[in-house]
Amino acid sequence: MLPFRGRLPRFFRDRRGVAAIEFAMIAPFMLIAFFGTVEFCTAVAIDRKVTLIARTFSDLTSQQTPPSLAVDGASIADPDFVNNFTAGMKIVQPYDATLVLGTISEVYVDSNAKATVQWSR
After folding, report:
1. Strands (DSSP E) along 1-121, which ranges?
2. Is the pTM of this model over 0.70?
3. Is 113 left (phi over 0), alpha (psi -120 to 50) or beta?
4. Residue 70 has what pLDDT?
């Protein structure tokens, strides 16, 4: 007779390793879902910080007299721009601030709807 005749039915009735096998099949999908969620949340947080940096740059710059409207030499000085950019770079923490680049420009639109850049830093 066959040597597995009595063992084969017992093998199919045995349920001791079912949980381990189910876990081994589901674990990769759970890990992908977990790390995907973490990366997505990080991307949303960075997007919000970039928006906040842009708002901060524009708010701080608009509170100072632009060079095109300067009277008696009072205008946005280079140290003011450095301070504005430094404030913006602090917002991005704890992420890498060296990857953030910014440009602030004044655009003037005349009565003929022609736009020209007055200054840019």
Report:
1. 105-109, 115-120
2. no
3. left
4. 52
Return the residue matching tokens 């655009």: 107
The long-range contacts involving 109-114, CB below 8 angstroms and separated by at least 24 positions, are: none
Rounded to whole angstroms, the Cα distance separating 69 from 98 reads: 32
Q: What is the Cα gyration radius of the chain?
A: 31
Mean of per-residue pLDDT scores for the chain: 80
SS3 109: strand
Cβ–Cβ under 8 Å, residues 117 and 103: no
Return the structure tokens found at 48: 């919000």
- pLDDT attached to residue 65: 64
